[in-house]
Specification:
- The complex is a heterodimer of chains A (about 300) and B (about 600).
- Chain A contains 9 helices and 6 strands; from the N terminus they run αβαβαββαβααβααα.
- Chain A is of the alpha+beta class.
- Chain A folds into 2 domains: about 200 residues, Multidrug efflux transporter AcrB transmembrane fold, CATH 1.20.1640.10; about 80 residues, Alpha-Beta Plaits (2-Layer Sandwich).
- In chain A, about 45% of the residues are buried.
- Chain B has 3 domains: about 150 residues, no CATH class; about 160 residues, Gyrase A, domain 2 (2-Layer Sandwich), CATH 3.30.1360.200; about 160 residues, Multidrug efflux transporter AcrB transmembrane fold (Up-down Bundle), CATH 1.20.1640.10.
- Chain B contains 16 helices and 25 strands.
- The radius of gyration of chain B is 33 Å and the shape is flat.
- The model of chain B has no long low-confidence stretch (mean pLDDT about 80).
- The chains are: A alpha+beta (about 300), B alpha+beta (about 600).
Chain lengths: ~300, ~600
């Protein structure tokens, strides 16, 4: 048997790390919350591009004097692009317009890049929908995995997913990165990706449990992980390659998105090795659980 | 075979994306009822020739005229030339005409549509205030019942509307029962009941509110009517491919690609058209109290109406077409209670006179003026235009509901009903979301997206060749086919590509490798025990189950994302789902076909993988 790396030897330490990260994330989420992007918080956002660099302080002063004291003014990408956020909750849709007019009156010429206004109600709805979507996704996956594999795998898979999602949220909360709709999309994509990994590993564990009846469960899991290690690393590597391309070249608008995915892929790879296997060990997966071989999914025979 | 068919069809539909686009303009008559014709085409040709403008092609297409140019500068200057010459007669929109060859168009193959974040433009989400519409209906209902109860001697002490409910306090138990019976008799409609009745027999109070069925009907009517109005207004903006769509229960999405001035767009979308009902002036009306108006249908016909307005459009709650006893088309109009009262008062002494309906629009007029530095520029001023859409003889005293007969053909009747509804906005709307993307940002986004796709793709291709050699090349060819298929399917579905959508494609490229990697590593393992041919065979078939399971779950998340996401994020869900399906197809079918092509039917001793 070819067990090059005894993953399960470190399972206690890995479990500890996971639990610690999970707890830190929960605490940060509880105390600091997420810094919600415009999609969820509602308000107005305006991005303008200046012909020459301009001091943010002067823009802030100008807005202060014109009745927008609580606006956030930051550079976006380059020092010529300025992003202004106003958390106006009154549902007034003409804030962007008037801010653009205020800034146009100054000396340096500007160009409007985008204005986004999200009414408070729409923001709330998107937030509810997002949360609901996440829960529905987790539930449906639980059902599918339980149906295709076995409930212990399903529990393992969903624990791994919850682990990934909470830690990514925790990191976004800790660093106060903007959490908007694209980050939510990334989070759901991470669920898909991490699950992909988890299923591939589970699939191999299941197969080995059926064919290699001589080994202890721990060795069996180690064997499976080793067999899949090459594949897991190659896939994670190529995915990370494209994600870094996206992060570096994709521009400011999808930076949060690619960042969430990068973190997600790293954590997802880790969790499919440790969290799932750990759960299976703790739930003491036995051969009996998989004793009756279910018919393998339709034999592939699609060649012309 | 199947592979070939899919690949050919996929490539065919991906093909239009390779052709460049051509700066073009689109000209339509301002009057949406009028289609562009040969005479307009000739006019345009003359104007362009006079100004010595080079254009490549001019032709008629679906009641609009399309003119193609060789470059953007000519496109822009021609727009000015044409607008200066024709002013308000026409609406001119700039757009990019894809240079798709005719044989591809005939197959329905068109380039991928760009989302607003890539094309630039504005997106509005408007919410229709259903409660106001409901309140209006309730007022009408209250008035109807007050009248009915009086006629039928059902006594009540109090009647009012509280919290979107009718409250009736009856004088005695007998009246209470009669009232209850009346409500119950009126309630049933084809698909259920209209009212929910709350009974308080001890205090002789009945409360009545609309049932869900009735509310849905009110909502659908209000939203439908606002949709019509919005479509008409958006047409005025001269956008080549506007979207006006209902979203969910009471919201309407308006997307205007290419529009750069959200303020102007908002003004036009948010403006109120209106109706005025006025009596026709007769010989006794003093000249000071009458006004002359044109008919909307016929510019040369005019009529004098009294200055005083009986009822305005905000009192109209419904207008639809029907047929009278002898089968002629008619338009049925319903007013709210106040409107009905005013109409009753105005018509009671005036049977035999004619009642006119004025359609009131806010319009902008363009004029050529010379500015301080001697250039002639177009100056726009807004004004109010009022046209007569109906002038009919009053046959009886009118109330809350009446009809206009003698309106001509059913088509003309429904045109009139549409105008009446457009004039009377059933329920007010407000902007709940607005996103504007400037044209420069759109271009920037396309560049960034393309750059990430190309770089990400190149990195993966290099890595695969380095790591898997011959098999890597097969996988790379699959990857390229995968991109072609995604593009083809996007074109075929008419789905819009957005920036997150491009990110979705990049991500698919990274993840699509997974299926190949799974197959290859499986073959490697099988090789330890079996000969190369059976290793390849078993490798493919055993990896399939794993790949299938892993991808179904990702599809589930993509589907959920599609349901909850809006705009750009939906684009991500679309490309991700398409990418998953195509990558499974290419990895399993295409790679295998290629591997068979190379190693099939040969007795190979050694396999490099």
């Amino acid at each position: 048997m070819d067990i090059r790396f005894k993953f399960m030897k470190f399972r206690k330490i890995a479990g500890l790390i996971s639990i610690t990260l999970f707890l830190i994330s929960c605490v940060s989420l509880g105390l600091r919350g997420l810094s919600l992007g415009l999609d969820f918080s509602g308000g107005t956002l305006i991005e303008v591009s200046y012909e020459s660099p301009v001091s943010l302080e002067s823009i802030r002063n100008e807005l202060d004097n014109n009745g927008y004291p609580d606006s956030q003014v930051v550079n976006f990408g380059t020092n010529l692009d300025v992003l202004i956020k106003v958390a106006d909750q009154s549902g007034n849709s003409s804030v962007g317009e008037s801010i653009f007019n205020i800034l146009s009156d100054q000396e340096i010429p500007i160009e409007l890049k985008r204005v986004e206004f999200v009414g408070p109600q729409v923001g709330d709805e998107l937030r509810d929908q997002g949360g609901l979507g996440m829960i529905v996704a987790l539930f449906m996956i639980l059902m599918y995995v339980a149906f295709r594999f076995q409930y212990k795998f399903a529990l393992g898979a969903v624990t791994a997913l919850a682990h990934d999602v909470v830690i990514i949220l925790g990191i976004f909360s800790l660093f106060s990165w903007d959490f908007d709709l694209t980050v939510l999309a990334a989070l759901l994509a991470v669920i898909g990706y991490s699950l992909n990994d988890t299923i591939v590993v589970s699939d191999r564990i299941r197969e080995n449990f059926r064919t290699e009846r001589v080994l202890e469960p721990m060795d069996m899991i180690d064997l499976s992980l080793n067999q899949m290690l090459g594949r897991t690393l190659v896939t994670s590597f190529t995915t990370l390659l494209v994600l870094f391309a996206l992060f570096i070249f994709g521009g400011e608008l999808i930076r949060g998105f690619s960042l969430a995915l990068i973190i997600g892929v790293v954590i997802g790879t880790y969790s499919s090795i440790y969290v799932v296997a750990n759960m299976l060990m703790s739930l003491t997966l036995t051969q009996d659980d998989l004793a009756i071989p279910e018919p393998e999914g339709a034999d592939f025979d699609g060649m012309p | 075979m199947l592979i070939l068919v899919v690949l050919i069809v996929g490539s065919l539909y991906a093909l239009p994306n390779l052709y460049p686009t051509q700066p073009s303009i689109q000209v339509a008559y301002t009057d949406s009822g009028r289609s562009a014709d040969q005479s307009l085409l000739n006019d345009l040709e003359n104007i362009l020739e006079e100004s010595k403008t080079d254009y490549e092609d001019i032709f008629l297409r679906e009641n609009k005229i399309v003119i193609k140019f060789n470059d953007v500068d000519t496109q822009l200057s021609s727009k000015t030339v044409l607008q200066n010459a024709l002013l308000d007669k026409v609406i001119i929109a700039l757009f990019l005409e894809p240079a798709t060859p005719q044989w591809l168009k005939d197959l329905g193959a068109n380039p991928v549509k760009l989302g607003l974040d890539l094309s630039g433009g504005v997106h509005f989400l408007l919410e229709v205030d259903i409660e106001t519409a409901q309140q209006g209906r309730l007022e009408l209902l209250l008035e109807t019942y007050r009248k009915t109860f009086k006629e039928e001697r059902i006594k009540f002490d109090e009647s009012s509307i509280k919290d979107l409910k009718l409250h009736f306090k009856f004088s005695d138990n007998q009246s209470y029962n009669k009232g209850l019976k009346k409500f119950r008799d009126d309630s049933p409609v084809i698909n259920g009941v209209q009212y929910i009745i709350t009974e308080r027999p001890s205090s002789d109070v009945l409360m009545l509110e609309y049932s869900d069925i009735a509310l849905r009907e009110i909502r659908d009517y209000a939203v439908g009517q606002n949709l019509i109005t919005l479509r008409n207004r958006v047409n005025e903006l001269g956008v080549s491919e506007p979207i006006v769509q209902r979203q969910g229960g009471n919201r309407i999405v308006v997307q205007l690609p290419g529009v750069q001035d959200p303020t102007a767009a908002k003004k036009i979308i948010g403006k109120t058209a209106n109706l005025e009902f006025r009596m026709e002036a007769n010989s006794r009306t003093s000249p000071l109290r009458k006004e002359e108006f044109n008919f909307k249908e016929n510019e040369f016909q005019t009529a004098f109406l009294e200055r005083s307005v009986i009822v305005a459009g905000d009192r109209v709650t419904n207008a639809n077409t029907g047929f009278d006893e002898s089968g002629f088309a008619q338009v049925n109009i319903t007013l709210d209670m106040e409107g009905g009262r005013a109409m009753q008062k105005a018509t009671s002494g005036n049977i035999g006179r004619r009642l006119g309906v004025l359609f009131v629009e806010q319009k902008t007029k363009s004029e050529l003026v010379t500015n301080e530095i001697g250039e002639s520029v177009i100056e726009q001023t807004s004004y109010i235009e009022k046209n007569i859409i109906s002038l009919a003889t009053v046959q009886a005293v009118l109330g809350t509901s009446f009809r206009i007969t003698g309106v001509g053909s059913p088509a003309e009747a429904s045109e009139l009903a549409l105008l009446l509804r457009a004039g009377a906005l059933a329920a007010p709307m407000k902007f709940v979301e607005e996103r504007t993307v400037g044209p420069s940002l759109g271009k920037e986004n396309i560049e960034l997206g393309m750059k990430s796709i190309v770089i990400g793709f190149a990195l993966v291709v290099l890595f695969m060749i380095f790591y898997y050699r011959v098999f890597g090349i097969a996988a790379n060819i699959s990857l390229i086919l995968n991109l072609v298929l995604i593009t083809g399917i996007m074109s075929l579905l008419g789905a819009s590509l957005t920036l997150p959508g491009m990110a979705g494609i990049v991500l698919t490229v990274g993840m699509a490798v997974d299926a190949n990697v799974l197959i290859f590593s499986r073959i490697r393992e099988e090789l330890k025990e079996k000969d190369p041919q059976s290793a390849i065979r078993d490798g493919f078939s055993r990896a399939f189950v794993t790949i299938f399971d892993a991808n179904v779950t990702t599809l589930i998340t993509a589907l959920i994302l599609y349901i909850i996401g809006t705009g750009p994020v939906k684009g991500f869900a679309i490309t991700l789902s398409i990418g998953i399906v195509t990558s499974m197809f290419t990895a399993i079918m295409c790679t295998r076909a290629m591997v068979n092509l190379v190693y099939g039917n040969k007795n190979i001793q050694e396999l490099k993988i």
